[in-house]
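About this split. The held-out portion is used to measure sequence recovery: a designer receives only the structure tokens and must propose an amino acid at every position. Recovery is the fraction of positions where the proposal matches the reference. Here is one held-out target exactly as it appears in the evaluation file.
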């Protein structure tokens, strides 16, 4: 490609990009869904939260399923003055094997989430693994959809989980699928501190 052709192509591309940027003028909070069976959903959510915290924005995390207690992200973020971190679930559902206890934990976590969705002092809420609550029918999706729709205008919400309920996908602004192509675990590599937790 000649320098001239490259320059013309880039100028055209810039015009297209500038037009797109000029069109996106709305300022409001967004609902982001991070789904799929690959690795990177929760870490992406916490990465975005680091951005918000860096700008001095108030954030909260609710973990609907408690995996490991002392994750690196928890250790790093727990002392942040602008962040509330709530671990509400009590274990993986196939580990606890107690449906009544799981439903009670899910409802308690949701009550907290509902209150945060009414509180405009929070700029970002992360509902980690919320999607499993619908898959296992621990929570009804409709009240969750209504509460998210009625949240303060500037509040951002990020939900993670391998599968996502369709009504949530319908109201989402951004949906990213993290697809599993390869994972070290299947090659016999143990879950590692700093990578998995
Ligand atoms: P991460 O927290 O690393 O961003 P995730 O949120 O996308 O992962 P989850 O479905 O929440 O993934 O899985 C929880 C744990 O399983 C994490 O420690 C994660 O690193 C690991 N994991 C994620 N995807 C896979 C996979 N395809 N195979 C094996 N382990 C996985
Ligand atoms: Mg996760």
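Reference sequence for scoring:
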């Amino acid at each position: 490609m000649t320098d001239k052709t490259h320059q013309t192509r880039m100028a055209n591309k810039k015009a297209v990009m500038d037009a797109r940027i000029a069109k996106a003028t709305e300022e409001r909070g967004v609902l982001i869904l991070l789904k799929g069976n690959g690795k990177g959903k929760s870490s992406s959510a916490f990465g975005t939260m680091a951005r918000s915290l860096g700008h001095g924005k108030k954030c909260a995390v609710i973990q609907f399923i408690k995996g490991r207690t002392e994750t690196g992200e928890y250790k790093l973020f727990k002392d942040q003055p602008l962040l509330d971190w709530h671990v509400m679930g009590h274990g993986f559902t196939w580990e606890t094997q107690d449906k009544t206890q799981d439903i009670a934990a899910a409802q308690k976590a949701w009550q907290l989430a509902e209150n945060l969705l009414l509180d405009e002092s929070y700029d970002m809420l992360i509902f980690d693994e919320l999607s499993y609550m619908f898959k296992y029918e621990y929570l009804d999706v409709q009240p969750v959809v209504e509460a998210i729709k009625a949240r303060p205008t500037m509040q951002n919400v990020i939900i993670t989980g391998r599968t996502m309920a369709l009504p949530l996908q319908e109201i989402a602004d951004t949906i990213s699928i993290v697809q599993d192509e390869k994972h070290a675990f299947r090659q016999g590599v143990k879950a590692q501190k700093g990578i998995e937790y």
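Annotator remark: The longest strand covers residues 31-35.
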